[in-house]
Design a protein that fits this description.
Oligomer: single chain
Largest sheet: 9 strands, mixed
Number of domains: 2
Strand content: 15-25%
Structural class: alpha+beta
Mean pLDDT: 79
Length: 390
């Protein structure tokens, strides 16, 4: 598979150059090898006038991602299990998915468990639950909320003594309780006893907050009657840009909860929204943006240098056209497979590229990887690549 075939000659621009940021990010993210998605109901209404051919309503059945799903990610370790239980102990409840993903990212940014304990303790919820209590009442409530029992005499005396002497503060006491064998036995997790590894998110250049909302499969653009769905339930930003392929169709934005922007021109002499880069959570799977049939899938060489994977789908809404999905890692479909928008997993994760991209300048740091999606009409001519392909 050549670069020309896979990405509409992404390495060509009108000036014979390609956009590659000088900012090189280190590899990020944990991998998701075997991901289980449970399905429930989401109905996308018919956008009659938007569809040039037949008005089509897309129905996507999928239940929201659960904490149990998240906890089964293969590459989580016992440190991640300890992090989940720390959350559980502090707030007396199972972590919600959004919270779990956020704190996983903080840990993968090489923040220590001690730092995270401090952030938990500084929160309003911890203050409201424990801030007004004396040390005796704090110990009693901690036993009740964390271990679901009354304190034994020896235990109460031990922890109270440490607090009274100033040898231990309250947040660190919660850390010890969350790491106890008793609490771990009450809340076993799949990654218990999996050896730890180093954190993976680059801290160079500092960090900035990331605002992400977990979503049901949501449409974000339309072209020629083909509706594109976001390929992940956790998208930070969709950045539209010019495609290198003259046959790529201009995408009309569909307003949704997914934030979107049209990025600065790349001087490609093509429509400003011929392609979309979707910054997606690196721990979650990439699903099909359309319902249709896989035409081809596999690997190719990006910019004549870098390994990348792709899937090309013929959409049911416009037979003969091609929806190209690039920058994914580990293709799980083959030519001839049927795929459903927002349901069928194309790959377990977005690919982390070893160089900066334009969308990285518009998102939080460290940057999430992005998935590239475009709709192509193969019957239209495309100028040859000035770089000659790979």
């Amino acid at each position: 598979m050549t670069l020309v075939e896979a990405k509409g000659q992404h390495n060509r621009s009108s000036s014979g150059t390609r956009y590659v940021s000088h900012r090189v990010e280190e590899l990020i993210c944990t991998a998701l090898r075997h991901f289980r998605i449970i399905l429930a109901v989401f109905v996308f209404a018919t956008f009659g006038s938007l569809f040039a051919a037949t008005a089509v309503s897309a129905e996507v059945d999928r239940e929201p991602l659960t904490f149990a799903d998240l906890a089964e990610i293969d590459e989580l370790t016992e440190a991640h299990a300890d992090l989940f239980r720390l959350y559980w102990a502090f707030f007396d409840r199972e972590p919600d998915v959004g919270g779990a993903l956020y704190w996983l990212e903080q840990y993968e940014r090489c923040n220590s468990m001690q730092n995270i304990v401090g952030w938990f303790a500084d929160g309003a919820e911890f203050e409201q639950t424990y801030g007004h209590l004396g040390n005796v009442a704090f110990v009693e409530k901690m036993y009740a909320n964390v271990l679901d029992r009354l304190p034994d005499d020896d235990g109460a005396t031990y922890w109270l003594g440490l607090l009274e002497r100033g040898a231990l503060n309250r947040p660190d006491t919660m850390l010890y309780f969350s790491a106890s064998a008793e609490f771990a036995g009450q809340h076993p997790l799949p990654s218990d006893n999996v050896p730890n590894r180093g954190c993976r998110l680059n801290k160079r250049g500092g960090s900035s907050p990331r605002a992400v909302q977990l979503l049901e499969p949501a449409p974000f653009a339309e072209a020629g009657g083909v509706t594109l769905f976001a390929p992940s339930v956790a998208v930070e930003l969709i950045g539209f840009h010019e495609s290198n392929n003259d046959a790529a169709r201009h995408q009309t934005v569909i307003e949704s909860e997914v934030p979107a922007t049209t990025m600065q021109s790349r001087n490609r002499d093509n429509p400003s929204r011929g392609s979309a880069d979707i910054a997606a959570n690196p721990m979650l799977p990439i699903t099909s943006p359309v319902t249709g049939t896989v035409i081809r899938a596999g690997g190719y060489t990006l910019y004549c240098r870098y390994r990348d994977d792709y899937v090309v789908i013929e959409p049911d809404q416009h037979p003969g056209w091609e929806v190209k999905v690039l920058h994914i890692d580990g293709v799980q479909v083959s030519a001839g497979d049927r795929v459903d928008a927002g349901v069928t997993v194309l790959a377990p994760r977005a690919r982390v590229l070893p160089f900066g991209s334009q969308i990285d300048d518009l998102t939080a740091n460290p940057s999430w990887p992005h998935v590239h999606i475009e709709i192509v009409d193969p019957s239209l001519p495309d100028r040859p690549s000035t770089g000659g392909g790979c």
